[in-house]
Amino acid sequence: MANPLDTDAGSELFGNYEAEFKLVQADLNQRLDQISELSGEQRKAAIGRAQHSLDEAKELLDSMRLEKQNLPVNAKANANKRFRNYESDVDGVKRKLDDLSSDRSALFGKRYRDNPTGDDQLEQRQQLLSGTDRLERSSGRLRDSQRVALETEDIGRNTLADLARQRETIQNTRETLLESEGYTDRSNKTLRGMAR
C-alpha cells in the first residue's frame, strides 16, 4: 500500500508541473500569434523561440506523465482527462508551428517564389555565385594563414633545436673550462713545490 505522504507529494508535484505547463502554453500561444505578423530573419528567430517553448512544453508533459502515476486513485481520472487535453493542445500547436515554418514566402521574404521568373533566377544565381566567390576567397585566406602558421612553427622548432645545440656547446665549454682550471691548480701546486 502506498504511503499517503507520497501521494500528497505526487499530487503537489503534478500540480507544479501543470501550473508551469500552463505558463509555457500561454507563452507559446503568444509567440505563435506574433509569428504570423513577421517575415524574413525575424520570423525565423521567432519560430526558433517558439520551437524552444514547444520542446519545453513536451518535457513538462513527460514529467506530468510520470507523476500522474503517483496520484491518488480518486484524482487520477480527472488528471488523465486534463493530461489528454494538454497533449491534444501540444499536438495542435506543433501542427500550427509546422505550417508557419513551411511558409517559404514569409520566411524568405519577397525574394522567394515557388515559380521564380527569369530575372529572379538570374538574381539568385548572381547572389549564389557572389557568395561562392566570397567563400573561396575566405578559404584561400585560411589556407594562407595555415601555411604561415606551419612555417612559423617550423622556424620555432629549428630555433629550439639551435638553442639546444648552443646550450650543449656552452655546457661542454664550461666543463672544459673547469677541467682546465683543475689542471692550472695542479700546475700551480707543482710549481710551488718545485720552488720550495
Plain-language structure description:
The chain has 196 residues and is mostly helical. The chain is 88% helix and 0% strand. The N terminus is likely disordered. Its main location: membrane. It comes from Corymbia citriodora subsp. variegata.
Question: What would you say about this model in short?
Answer:
With 196 residues, the chain is mainly α.
Count of helical stretches: 5
Q: Structural class of the secondary elements?
A: mainly alpha
Profile the largest sheet: none
Per DSSP, what share of the residues sits in E-state strands of 2 or more residues?
under 5%
Low-confidence stretches: 1-7
Radius of gyration: 39 Å
Which percent range fits the helix content?
over 70%
Bulk shape? elongated
Mean pLDDT: 82
The counted number of beta strands is 0
| Helix/strand order, N-terminal first | HHHHH
Q: Kindly, what is the distance between the CA atoms of the first and last residues, rounded to a whole number of angstroms?
A: 113 Å
GO molecular function, one term: SNARE binding
Subcellular location: Membrane
InterPro entries: SNARE, T_SNARE_dom, v-SNARE_N_sf, Vesicle_trsprt_v-SNARE_N
Main location: membrane
